[in-house]
Each structure stands twice: as C-alpha cells, then as structure tokens.
Amino acid sequence: MSVLATFFSLDFVQRALLVGSLISLCAALLGVPLVLKRYSMIGDGLSHVGFAALAVAAALNATDAALYISIPIVVLAAFLLLRINESSRIKGDAAIGVIATLALAVGYIVMYRAGTNIDISNYMFGNIFTIRTADAWLSIGIAAALLLCFILFYRRLFAVTFDETFSRAIGIRTGLCKTLIAILTAVTVVLGMRMMGTLLISALIIFPALTAMRVCNSFRSVVFTAAAVAVGCFLVGTVAAHLFNFPAGSTVVVANGIAFVVCSAVGRWRRR
Q1: What is the spatial distance between Cα 21 and Cα 189, in angstroms, rounded to a whole number?
Q2: Residues of the chain where predicted confidence (pLDDT) is lower than 50
Q3: pTM of the prediction?
Q4: Rounded distance between C-alpha atoms, residue 96 and residue 102, angstroms
Q5: In this structure, are residues 172 and 160 in contact, taking their beta carbons and an 8 Å threshold?
Q6: CB atoms inside a 10 Å sphere around CB 3
Q7: Radius of gyration of the chain (CA)
Q8: Spelled out in words, what is the top-level CATH class assigned to the domain 2-270?
Q9: Other beta carbons less than 10 A from residue 14's beta carbon
C-alpha cells in the first residue's frame, strides 16, 4: 500500500491519471457511434496522420508545439476522409488504409531524413507519464469541450447513428453531425497519442464500445457502460503497469481486452 500511496502522491502521476481518464472517456463516448456505423478504424488512420504531423514538428525542432501542429492537420485529414468516403468509389476501410499507410510512410521518411534523436517507441506506443503541464491543461480544456459537445448533440448523434435517412427527413443535418463526429475523433486521437501511441490509440475507441455492447441492449446504457469501462480499464492498467513494471499504454489495452472477454462471457451466460 505504501508503494501505491507514493505512486499516487507524485505530481506527474496525478496529472497523467487525470488527463488519461478524460481522454479515455472522450474516446469511449465517440467510439459508440463509430463502432455502430462500422467506421471505428478511423481512429487508427488518423493516428498515423498524427504521427506524420509529429514527425514534421520534430524535424522543424518544434516538439514543444507538436500538439498545436498536429491537431489542425489531423482534423483536416478527418474531414478529407469523410469527403472521400461520401463522394468517391473509395469507401470505408480502403480510404482509411490509403491515408494511414501514406501518412506513416511520409512521417518516417521525414524523421529519417531529418536525423532526429527522438525515441520512436514513444511515438508508436506512447508514454502518458511524459506529458507536460502545459499540454495537460490544453488536453483537459479540449476534453471538457468535447464532452460538452457530445452532451449537447447527443440526441442528434443517436438519430444519425441508427437511421440517417429518417434523420434527414426530420430536418437533422446529417452531414454536419458526421463532420462533428469526425472532428471530435480527430482531436481525441491527437490528445490520446501521447498516452497510447500511434499503434494503440484506436483501442480506446473500439474496446469500450464493443465491451459495453456485450452486456447492454440500449444506446444510452451502452454509452454509460463504455465510459465506465474505459476509465476503469485505464486506471487499472496504469496502476498494474507501475506495479509490474510494464509499459502503461500496452497494459491499458490488455486491461480492455480482459474486460471484453469477461463481458462477452457474462453476456453469453445471460442469453442462455
């Protein structure tokens, strides 16, 4: 217990837990409509774009402003993905794959040519404990704005998620709602990359929603359960990573995986 008490008393740990919990919450809330619309891998694609943006920032010796550089670039990529998916023959996963692989390749070329000394593993797998105070406050402010937007547009997001045609017929601007989801997802991905890295950030979007769907039947219950699972798995994973000297981001994903398996078993047992 003294080990945990010391762990929780550290300023950088408290900062990491607060920021990580908020980002996990945002990712879980956005993950529900994305999974139901079968567009959940957008998080993976946008994280690769974020990697390219971070590489450019590193090449320009602007790592302190990496977050400010990455957000507009990834938001633009999200908007571009949405337009490609709606107006061309390249649909869904194919469009995401094209942009993701291209962005990852460009990012690595930029870092290779610039000869930066940055630890690539931090970009790929994240390290929540390295987040700076300034970035933490920015993340908290943006996460709060994201939560507010989700609450304000909850009913419209619900309608668009299940029936776009009906939503359009009753006057809901479905294009605007989908754009809002894409932009919110882009910002969440950028904020979460410091915590989970390029390769693992999509887990925060996919796992909580899928886990909640194993045991819940209504949209509202799925949303609340996904939020609880996301925050709970983040806290459990972070503490376990400290106790067993594991990488935090990977341990959080494993915690989400265990929760998914357990809830799948519970859901199957309840349906008997």
Answers
A1: 14
A2: none
A3: 0.86
A4: 10
A5: yes
A6: 9
A7: 19
A8: mainly alpha
A9: 13
